[in-house]
Specification:
By secondary structure, the chain is of the alpha/beta class. It has 12 helices and 10 strands. The protein has one domain: Aldolase class I (TIM Barrel, Alpha-Beta Barrel). The strands form 2 sheets. An 8-stranded parallel β-sheet has the order 2-1-10-9-8-5-4-3. It has a two-stranded antiparallel sheet with strand order 6-7. Bound molecules: 3-hydroxy-3-methylglutaryl-coenzyme A (HMG) and magnesium ion.
Length: 297
């Protein structure tokens, strides 16, 4: 079995750090991630710069991304304006990001749950026509800080509509990190019943309650092979107050190495990168594996 790690540190991680790092640091971060063996690195987002000032330099960053043969650099795009900006830089992959709940659609996208699809439809259509692959996220798949628990059927309904637009994969986001393995099983079962198998799904766990790794293992056992993670466990989502960092890539790689699952990632090189970035962010990495291996380095 091989697992694809979809690295989101430069986007989901850096978008929520108090410190906005200079574009050269972002470039070096991405280059180091590629050197460590990560083959999919979400580089940045083309959202409104006032909403996410930390990534306002997306155009400048994309002018000169590290050359790394075979490495994919998707970017997050919410609307046609974002797509136009991304296409100016010749991107070959984008990701749109929907919400499973009404409140988060309004807070994160300034749209209703229903009108988010009207925003995404022309983005996906134009991207596909330009030969650009489109991934879709669904946020708040387990619970939402304003609406409480979210029914799996609601997530499946949103997710299917995003896939039907032409997205190749759906990444299931536990934006506030409250899910547990039983929730994960229930959600994957609901997708299966809705005709969406694990080969179309990825998982995106935030680690607020320390459940991200257990949830990931549950999804892997159900056949999911694409896992989102952020180096050093940095990140969150600024429009979901209680969200914390993503599953740390190092914690994931440690577990997968132990399971004998091929990732192609050099763990020590990745830890060195997270220690280097922590110095620039002015705070230690929350990853247990980074902390443990730092003592040996
Ligand atoms: P809006 O204010 O409704 O936008 O924001 P609008 O369409 O009304 O346009 C207003 C103005 O903004 C216009 O300028 C547009 O050109 C401009 P004007 O004509 O007034 O001068 N504009 C833009 N400028 C640059 N780039 C753009 C863009 N779009 C409009 N793309 C919008 C709607 C979607 C843009 C806004 O709500 C937004 O940017 N939201 C993004 C929030 C965000 O990035 N959140 C974090 C990412 S999601 C996440 O982290 C969750 C995830 O990790 C999964 C999980 O954990 O669950 C993916
Ligand atoms: Mg996220």
């Amino acid at each position: 079995m091989r697992v694809t790690i979809y690295e989101v540190g430069p986007r989901d991680g850096l978008q929520n750090e108090a410190v906005t790092v200079p574009v050269e640091v972002k470039r070096e971060f991405i280059g180091r991630l590629a050197e460590a063996g990560l083959s999919v690195i979400e580089a940045t987002s083309f959202v409104h710069p006032k909403w996410i000032p930390q990534l306002a330099d997306a155009s400048e960053l994309l002018e000169d991304l590290p050359k790394a043969p075979g490495v994919r650099y998707p970017v997050l795009v919410p609307n046609e304006r974002g797509l136009e900006r991304a296409l100016e830089h010749g991107v070959s992959e984008i990701a749109v990001f929907g919400s499973a709940t009404e409140t988060f659609a309004q807070r994160n996208l300034n749209r209703t749950l229903e009108s988010q699809f009207e925003m995404f439809a022309p983005v996906v259509e134009r991207a596909l026509a330009a030969g650009v692959r489109v991934r879709a996220y669904v946020s708040m798949c387990f619970a939402d800080p304003w609406e409480g628990p979210v029914a799996p059927a609601q997530v499946v309904a949103v997710g299917r509509r995003l896939l039907d637009l032409g997205c190749y994969e759906l990444s299931l986001g536990d934006t506030i990190g409250v899910g547990t393995p039983r929730h994960v099983e229930a959600l994957l079962d609901a997708f299966g019943d809705g005709g969406v198998g694990p080969e179309r799904l990825a998982v995106h766990f935030h680690d607020t309650y320390g459940q991200a790794l257990a949830n990931t293992l549950t999804a892997l056992r159900r056949g999911v092979t694409v896992v989102d993670a952020s180096a050093g466990g940095i990140g969150g989502c600024p429009y979901a107050g209680s969200a914390t960092g993503n599953l740390a890539t190092e914690d994931l790689v440690w577990m997968l190495d132990g399971l004998g699952v091929e990732t192609g990632v050099d763990l020590r090189s990745l830890v060195a990168t997270s220690l280097w970035l922590a110095d620039r962010l002015g705070r230690p990495s929350p990853s247990r594996v980074v902390q443990a291996l730092a003592k040996e380095m």
